[in-house]
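Hi, here's the filled form for the chain we discussed.

Project: internal
Contact: R.S.
Residues: 410
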Amino acid sequence: MRDVRQRLRTPITALALVVAGLLTVSSCSGGGPALPGASSGPDASTAPPVPAPTIKISPVKGAAKVRPDKPVVVTAAGGALEDVNLTSGGKPVEGEFNADRTRWKSSGPLKPASEYSITARAAGEGGPATVTGGFTTLTPARQLRIADVTPNLKGETVGIGMPIMVTFDQEVKDKKSVEAALTVTSDKPATGAWRWMSDRLVIYRPAKYWAAHQKVKLTANLQGVRGASDMYGVRNYTATMKIGAAWISTVSTRAHTMVVRKDGKVVKRMAISAGKATTREYTTTNGVHLTMERGNPVTMISPGKKEGDPGYYKEIVNHAVRISSSGEYVHSAPWSVGSQGRANVSHGCVNARPDQAKWFYDNFHRGDIVKVTGTNRQLEWNNGWGFWQMSFKQWRKGSALPKSTQTVTG
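And the returned structure, exactly as it came back:
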């Protein structure tokens, strides 16, 4: 009996050791589910905090000789921009945010030779952030200014064909940037385009004659605009012209008449004498002219000839209104009253009776239309203000911008 008990005691002890070993292994594995309220690990209560947003400003703080035509850009990471305040001399600079307000960019060029300060604020999960900065724009070696705008006489009323002519004091090389800074607006909608005549002269004309009785405004936001290497605009300009009635005069060199219409109504019929057409020089040019200037009197001298040469003349005429650069006028000619309405005997001008020439002189505006018909010599588009001789499709090819057509509205 004693032997049996001894044999049974040994397996029970071994089983207990195995179970104890399994329990020991299980308790150290860490693979079991955690008890409620138990810690999941030693780092659970020490997770790193979410950082505040990061704000970057370009140009960087303290930058000098910053190009005024380059935008100021502010970006935020880890949050959204709440406010950006860019100023110079106490005046704010406008800008725009992107859709999620992680980026802000200034609108338009800056002022040359100026100090700017900037403050940007952002907010995010990690709290608010504020960054300040400042920089100085470069002083241009050359300053681009407008030397003249035609028309720009105070209180002047102009005709429906009047172009806007802008002359710069420096040669413009970056025509795209400068042209983009020129805006034309009008009370009555129209379409027009700029055309560069030279590095200093750019001209705007509408596709069709201006609508009568309205105002047209030129705005030239040139401040900070790059015109060439080391050359920037330093100020902005505005000019306004008043479009008067639609004065259109039609000259028939064959019928020897000039019919003047105001807003479509005939207000004057004039007997005239045009160029005698014995030479090209003495042939009145055909096409759409614009009235340019007037004089009383005007001394007219035969071009390219000196006293004693065949065909030389020097005459003083009254009430003369210029319609081209090649010497054509509508003017008084008392010496040819007998030919007016009957024959063409002039050196190329449109001659009229003294009283009718004075009436025309007193009533014309710069930019009124004088349309000549009946001759075989065409007015060149760049002879005086003969710009209406060129189709608008061709005209806008002289623009520096890819899409040169501009819609002008009030």
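Let me know if anything looks off before we file it.
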